[in-house]
Model the fold of this input.
Amino acid sequence: MTIKYTKDHEWVRVEGDVGTVGVSDHAQHQLGDVVFVELPDVGRQLAQGKEAAVVESVKAASDVFAPVSGEVIEANADLENDPSLVNAGAETTGWFFKLRLSNPAELDGLMDEAAYKAFVEGQA
Amino acid sequence: MTEASESLKTTPLHSLHLELKGKMVPFAGYDMPVQYPLGILKEHQHTRAKAGLFDVSHMGQVRLTGEDPAAALESLVPGDIKGLARGRMRYTLFLNEQGGILDDLMVTNAGDHLFLVVNAARKDHDVAHMRERLKGKAEVELLDDLALMALQGPEAAAVLGRFIPEAATMKFMSYLPATFNGIPVIITRSGYTGEDGYEISCDTSDAETIARALLAEDEVEAIGLGARDSLRLEAGLCLYGHDIDETTTPVEAGLEWALSKRRREEGGFPGYAIIKDQLANGAPRRRVGFQPDGRQPAREHTDVCDADGQKIGEVTSGGFGPTASAPVAMGYVDRAHAAVGTPVQLMVRGKPLAAKVAAMPFVPQRYYRG
Done:
């Protein structure tokens, strides 16, 4: 199992050919209190780096991009009733959706946990 | 700190905001806290439950003096200023010749002068406007040696009453010179949250002392601009530059209550002919509230469409109301669609979001009525 991060603060955890996607704990801190998440429909084809979801805090709406390409196979229904799960567990229970990877080689261009940590610290 | 923020102005409470770990953002040329570590949602809820302290020192405080400053000011605004009793205040509007709103403001009869509070982003404009238009009739002084704080919420009266006993029994929309731990202050019972509360004006050099004393009270938390915005939106209050501007008239904006009876009859303010006509015959569009179905917020500039998908208006402020526990918005629609309950579609990211025209405020106002 590998977890990779993007420069836009999404993460993807890969098991077999299925990737689980969410936003990083750093991102949820920056967003503040999440009040709504718009998730992609099951069956939608997502392209790497393109809009996949929208996360809304009290103050603003922010796009979430697909870290890798693939077909959406599940959206996290719990976020509909309790969007604050994104704040409580950004990298666990607050996941956004799962997709079946169409081009696993894309993972090679993403950061691992250590590289992402350094990236975030470099931005501060 | 970035280079951009170095050119921003700061308020007398700036170092306190940093000490309280406020998340600083540029607002109206000032480096201001959008939130503190508590976060917008909890800051909002705390203000509705107890009391919140807001730094609003970026706003313009103005003194108007002269032989008859009330008569002079009435040539620029549609409110009854001459009829304002000493120690009383009123919400009014600077208007242009088309009846458009140049700014909204609070005017207090302070006895020997009028005391005005105007928007931060408009204070230079407003001062120049008054100096030009009231030349020879009134002296206009921008009081930039003063700070301004707002203490808002159901516990505000109990808290401020510990320092200023007379504060607790002040009428809503009244003014009182007082002392706070020996420091001279001017307080008004007013605010921008829909809650009971006060605005406290003092010398810039005293602001931090007063803020620290208030924050030391159990009920009080520091509140940022983010919650100030969600609080005023739930209360149905306009934000200048968003919900009202030079292209909106008071009648379109649903601010008829700010058009005093005598002034409606006598006129004598800019845009009177247009406003008189709109009062008699209705305005082409109206500011209304929107209540989206579900939890998805609709933000500023979202198009509003009728059931057939024809554009009928636009959202001017929108977000999530923490107390309403639902998305809330306001904006303008053509008059035919302005009735409460009218179904509309809000076009959020290209998709229609079902909503209804809703009565405002979204959360009942709880002003002190004595």
About this structure: The two ends of chain B are 47 Å apart (CA to CA). Chain B has ten helices and 19 strands. Residues 287 and 332 of chain B are 4 Å apart (CA to CA). The mean pLDDT of chain B is 96.
